[in-house]
Amino acid sequence: MSKFKDVFVIDDDKVFHFIIKKLFSKNNIDINPSFYLNGLEAIEKIREKINLGVTMPDLILLDINMPIMDGWQFLDEFRKTRTTTTTNGQTIIYLVSSSDSISDINKAKEYQDQVKDYFFKPMTLEDLRKIF
Amino acid sequence: METYNYHDLKILEEKNSLYKKLLFQSPDLIFQFSISVDGRLTFPFMSKSVITHFDLQQEEKSKDAYTVLRSKIHPDDFSKFLKSIQEAKSKLKDWNHEFRAILPEKGLRWFSGSASLEKDDEGTVHFFGKITDVTHFKEQELKLKLSEERFLFALEASSEGIWDLDVASNKVFYSSQSMKMLEFDAKDRVDSINLWDDRVHPEDKNRYLTDIQLHIDRVTPYYENAQRVMANSGEYKWILSRGKIIQRDENDKPLRIIGTHTDISAQKEKEEDMIRTLGIIGEQNSRLLNFAHIVSHNLRSHSGNIEMLLNIIAEETDEDFIKESFNHLRTSSKSLSQTIEHLKELVEIQSDLVQKKENLNLSAYLGKTLDVLAEEIKSNKVIIQNKVPEQETIVFNPAYLESILLNFTSNAIRYAHPDRTPVISYSMTSNKYHKILEIEDNGLGINLERHGKKLFGMYKTFHKHKDSRGIGLFITKNQIEAMGGKVDVSSQVGIGTTFKIYFNE
Question: Are B329 and B304 in contact (CB under 8 A)?
C-alpha cells in the first residue's frame, strides 16, 4: 500500500509513462498515476480540481525538459495556483530528469521550497524507496 | 647772406666735432656712401662699428668702395646688391636692401641696409644710412619656416584637421582637412564654433561638453572626445577631436584652445563589426553549450529507457506485455537514432569551416521551395505572395538556402491560423550591411515575451501540434550564422509572425 493516493506523472516521454507504471507494479506500489505530457496539461487539471473543490495531487513526478510548458514554468504556475486557493493539499514534488546539467541542478535548489528531491533518469529502486 | 663771427664759428666747430664723434663712436653701423657722376664708389664716412663689424683692414679702407663691397658681399648677392643701389640712385629714393656678407671672423652674416639719398651740385649721389646685422632674425625666420613646412607636411600626410578656438569671440579656425570631413570645400575657414557643435550627434553632445570642461578645469592634461558629427550629406562621421588650452587669462579662464580632428569612421566601423561578430560568436557558443546539454540529455533519456525496457522484457513472462515493451523499445530506438541524426546535422554545420558559398538567385530558390511544398500549399489553401525581385542574388551555401526557405515556409504553413486563409509573403529590403529577406505570415503567432529567448533553442516547440519537433529553427539559425548572417523575429499571438533573414552583402 502507498501513502499517496493521487499521483501526477508529468513527462513528455510516453515510454517513461510505461516504464514508471511497470516499476510501480513490480515493486507492489499500488498506485494508478495520472499522466500528463507537459506542464500545461497538468496545470489545467489542477485548476479544474480547484474549481471542483477537490484535493490537490499529493505526489508529482515532474520532468524538466518538455514542450509547451516545461517543469520550471509548471512550478511557477503551481506556486501561483496554490497561493490563490484555499483548497488544502500537501503536495510533494520530485524532479525526474535526464538532465545532469549544472544549471538545472542549481535551478532545482532555487525551487527547494517546492521540490523535495531531484532524481536522474533512469529511476532506480532506491529512488522509489526514497519516495515511498 | 649769412655771416658768422668767430665765436659762432667756434661753436659750430665744436658742434661739428661732437657730431662726428657721436656718429663715429655710435654702436650702430652708420655710413655715407657716394657715387660720383663718373661712377666712382666711395665711402666718405663709416662709423667705427662698421669698420670693426666688417673686419675692415687699414689697406681695405683706402681701396675703392667697389673692391671693398666685392670682397665682403656674398658672390650670389653681389649683383642684386649693385642693382638695388642703381635703382635707388636713378629714382633718388630711399634704399632698402637685404644681403649676405662673408666676414673673415664671423663667417656668413645677414645684413639689412637702409639709406636716404641726396644729390649734390656736382651730381654725386650720397647714401646716408645704416646697416643692421639681422642674422639672428633670419635664422629664426628660417627655423620657423622649416618647422611650419614640417607641420604642414605632417598634417597633409596624416589627413588630420586642425582647429583653433578663440574663446572670447567663439570663432574657430577650421583647417581645410576639418572642412573636408564635413564635406565642405577643402579650404581653411574661420567660422562660429556652432558650425561644428550644431552637427555633433545629440547622444554624443553631453560627453563632448563634459570632456572639454574637464580639461578647462585642469582635471585632464588635454581634451579628447570621439563624437559623431553630421557631414553635409546628412551622414554621421566618427571624429576623434583632441585639443589643449594654450593660453589662459589671469583668472585661469581659457583664451585659446588648439586641437585636431581625426576621421575615425573606418576604425569605428571595424570596431562595430567586431562587436557584432563577437555577439554572434558568443550566442553560437552558448547555443552549442545548450546543444551539448540537450543532446546528452536526450541520449541519456533514450538509452535509459532502452535499458529499463530490456530489464522489463527479461523479467516479464506475459506475452502481451512483452509485445508492448518491444513497441516502446522500437520507439526509443527510433528516437535515439533521430537524436544522433540531429547531432550529425549540427556537427556538420559547425565543423564545416570552409562552407561553400555561391552567388545564388534567391527568387529561383524560393520558387524551388514552393514547388517542393506545392502539395501542402494546395491542401492548406495557402496564398503565396512572392515579392522578391527576379534578379535578386545572395552569396550563400545552396544546401543551406534550400533548407532555410523550406523550414520557414513549412513552419508558416504548419502554424497557420485555423480561422483564416493562410497568407505567406516574401519581400526584400536592405540596410548598410545586409540584404534582408522578410517572410511574413498571418498564422498563430508566438508569444515572444514568454518564448523569445528559447525560440531558436533545440527541441523547443511552442504550439500544441502533432508535428512539432523543435529542431528546425535551431538548425536554421545555425546555418544562417555559419554564413555570417543573422535572423530576427517579430510576432503577435493571433496575428502572425515575421522572420527577417539578414544575408551579408
Answer: no
